[in-house]
Amino acid sequence: MQVLFIHQNFPGQYPHLAEALRDRGDQVLAIGGPTAVALPGVPLHRYDPMARGEVPTCHHWAADFQVKLLRAEAVALLLEKLISQGLRPDLVVGHPGWGELLAVKDLLPGVPVLHHVEFIYQMEGGDVDFDPEFSRTGWSDRTRLRLKRAPQLLAFHDLDWGMAPTAWQASTAPAEFRERISVIHEGIDTQRIGPRKDSSISLQKAGLSFEAGDEVISFVARNLEPYRGFHVFMRMLPQLQKLRPKAHVVIVGAEGVSYGSPPPRGVSWKKVLLQELAGQLDLRRIHFVGQVPHAVLHDLFRVAACHVYLTYPFVLSWSLLEAMACGAVVIGSATPPVQEVIRAGENGLLVDFFDLEAIAQQIAEVLTDPAAYRSLGETARRDVVAGYDLKTVCLPKQLALVDRLAREAADQAVSTKSLKVRDVEAPSRATSIGL
């Protein structure tokens, strides 16, 4: 079978699936943007969305759609070239979020496309109107959001099948399309990511090292920004430091913006919050370590007395499940994506996203008596192994779905060909009878 992946940041959500298909003997290739990274044995063809020069000016409401159209055109031109060179995929797997799949059905009309359904913008009840501090409620902002949904909704009309990481993320799709979405997570390699008694972490700049049993709190995000509750976490710290003056906080994440708007003054949210809280924090016990290697992140989860995960109603972070896989005691926000994974008092703890005092108090209680909460982390580990393990749960489901879609498309092609043959033969028989 020949499988084509299309993803601007390939491998993106697909490293395990692409490698598994390759390893079992399928022909796997990928189309990606300038930042895509090749996997061994998976030919990568890069497209340049800006190959024709600068983006022409347009109405500001249309700017997002225009960028997606540029990507769609660049992918289509590259795909047309590859088809002329013999590309004949049995299945296309891709993420429709950046517009890359918009023209695929016009170039490969009989090939099934498996969409990654990550998150569909919601007019109400989602991320946009969740945080009053950053909500934009004017009609112009709502219209801009409505138009930003257009490429996402358009993609559903070409949907052969979708794959969503969580049930809540699948629920953001329009109801009429949900029957064609399978809930299968990308998978957590729980054989590699798990508890380890001898773990430790060293903070070279601070000259400190920590091991299990130390009073350490972890907070992790790709970028330190409001969507992942960074502002809430920082504003909570003065209260926490009063309750636990010896506790150390390790904060992992870059200072850019992955989601939402950048801070108004053109600096990072970290700088904005540190300036806002100047004089209220003991910075000797707050450690910003930037982005760290994956293995170091797991050691942090193993060492930390608790891990704090806060998020808007948005895409669930891999880091939460990886922390749970390491047996961490997680304190998460009582928001829908987290509530799907964490059952309060059973495999973790839940707090109101906006309640600074409640968050600080809950962390302090865990730090006061870690042994009383250890079973939460143990149950969290078991739950991730049972529901999200890469090799025994998620990857087998992904492969089964890929095989089913390719098989059904092949059967449909054979059936269609058979019907065409009968259509050609039927008039000939009728003519003979007539004579």
Tell me what the structure shows:
This protein has helices spanning 15-23, 63-84, 104-107, 139-148, 150-156, 167-171, 230-243, 269-276, 294-303, 318-325, 336-339, 356-368, 370-388, 390-434, and strands at 2-6, 27-32, 44-46, 91-94, 113-116, 161-164, 181-183, 200-203, 208-211, 216-223, 248-254, 286-290, 306-309, 330-333, 349-351. The chain is an alpha/beta fold. It folds into two domains: 2-186, Glycogen Phosphorylase B (Rossmann fold, 3-Layer(aba) Sandwich); 200-388, Glycogen Phosphorylase B (Rossmann fold). The strands form three sheets. A seven-stranded parallel sheet has the order 3-2-1-4-5-6-7, sandwiched between helices. Strands 12-11-10-13-14-15 form a six-stranded parallel sheet, sandwiched between helices. Helix 7 (230-243) links the parallel strand 10 and strand 11 (248-254). Helix 7 runs parallel beside helix 8, helix 10 (318-325) crosses helix 13 and helix 12 crosses helix 13 (370-388). The longest helix has 45 residues, at 390-434.
What does the overall shape look like? globular
Q: Considering the protein shown, what is the CATH homologous superfamily of the largest domain?
A: Glycogen Phosphorylase B
Give the number of helices: 14
User: What is the total domain count?
Assistant: 2
Strand content: 15-25%
